[in-house]
User: What shape does this take?
Amino acid sequence: MHADHPTTLLCLASYFKGGAFIEEAKRLGCQVILLTRQKLAHHAWPMDSIDERFLMPDLQLGPNLIHAVSYLARDRQIDAIVPLDDFDVETAAHLREHLRLPGLGDSQVRFFRDKLAMRMQAQAAGIPVPAFVHVLNYKRLAAFMAATPPPWVLKPRSSAGSIGLKMIHHSDELWPILDQLGDQQSHYLLEHFLPGDVFHVDSVIWDGEVLYAVAHRYARPPMSVMHEGGVFITTTLPREDALTQALLTVNRQVIQAKGLRRGVTHAEFIRGAADGQIYFLEIAARVGGANIDRMVEAAVGFNLWREWARIETASARGEGYTLPPITQAYAGLAICLARQEWPDTSAYQDPEIVWRLSKERHAGLLVAAATPERVQALMQDYSQRFAADFLAVAPPPDKPTD
Assistant: This one.
C-alpha cells in the first residue's frame, strides 16, 4: 500500500452496475470515488462503500469531463481509473492518458471497443474472423458485396453488444441506409453474417496471462434474441469437451494478441455452421452484461466484479494476485421480456434455482447443478415455459437504454 495515502480508485459508471466491484474495493481498504450520471443518483449504489460520489449530466468524453476529473485530482491522488460500463472504457482510457495513469490507453483500448480495429488486429494475428469491410470506400464496399454472399450485418464500430445492428439482404438495401447515416457511415463496418452457434468466454487476466477462463454457449445468438425476440439462454459448456478446449485456446490467442496485461474480459465467438470453424466476433475489457457475472459465479464459485477489484487494487499497490478457490459446477441463465409488469416466477420450484431476476417487465432464473446435462434439461423446460408464461417481444433498441 502507498505509505502516504490509501489506494484511490476512480470508478466511472454511465449505467447502474458494478456494485460488487465497489464493495470489494472498499473491503480491500481502497478509497472509492464514483463518478456517475445525475439521472442515476437514485439507484441503489452501495453508498457505505463509496467515499465520495460526484454527479454529471453525462460521462461523454470532452473538455467538461477532463476538467472535472483533473479538478478532483488536485487534492486526491488517483491511482487507477476503472470503467464499470462498456461505454466508459474509451473515456477511462483517455483520462488515463491525460493523467498518465497505468492501464489501457487510447490506442490499445480500440482493440476492445472498436469492432473494426479488433477484427483487423485479430486477422493480422492469424485468428479467423468473419469476412468484413470498413464502410469507407464505395468501390471496396461494392467489391465486398459482390464477392461475399449475403446476408451481411451493418455494425456500429463502438456500440455495445447487439445495439444498432442492421441485417442487409441485398446490396440495394445498403446504399439508402448509408445516405441516411451521412457523415456517420465511416463509424460502421459491414460483415458477412455467419450462421452458427455463438459462445462467450469470460476470463481473468494477470501479468499478461489468462489465469482462468470459462466457456458458455448461447442457446440462440444474442443478436437474434434482440432483433427477433425470444428467451435469452446461456449455459456452461462441458469442461473436457474438445469444443470447450478449442474455445479456450482461441480466447487465449485473442487476449495475448491484444496485449492486455490485467483485468477481466468477455469475448464472443461463433462456430460456423458450414465449416465448423471457430471465428472471433468481439471482446470487451470488462465484466459481461445481462447478469452473466452471476452465472459465472454460480459455475466457478467466484465473482468477476470482485476479482476485477482485487486485480486493480493489487496492481495499484504493486502486489501480487492469485485466483480464489474454483468450483466446477455448471450453470444456466434464462431471461426474457415479460408481458407482466412484475412477473411471478414462484411456480418455478426446482432446487437448482439459485437466483431470480427482480426487474420490471423481465423474467429471469439462474440455475446451478453438478452436471451440464441437468442444466440443459432445465433450460429446455424453461425456454418453453417462459414463452407461454411471460414472453413479450419489443422492437430492438437503436441506442442503449438506462
User: Anything to note?
Assistant: Residues 196-389 form a domain with the D-amino Acid Aminotransferase; Chain A, domain 1 fold (CATH 3.30.470.20). The CA atoms of residues 385 and 391 lie 9 Å apart. The mean pLDDT is 94.
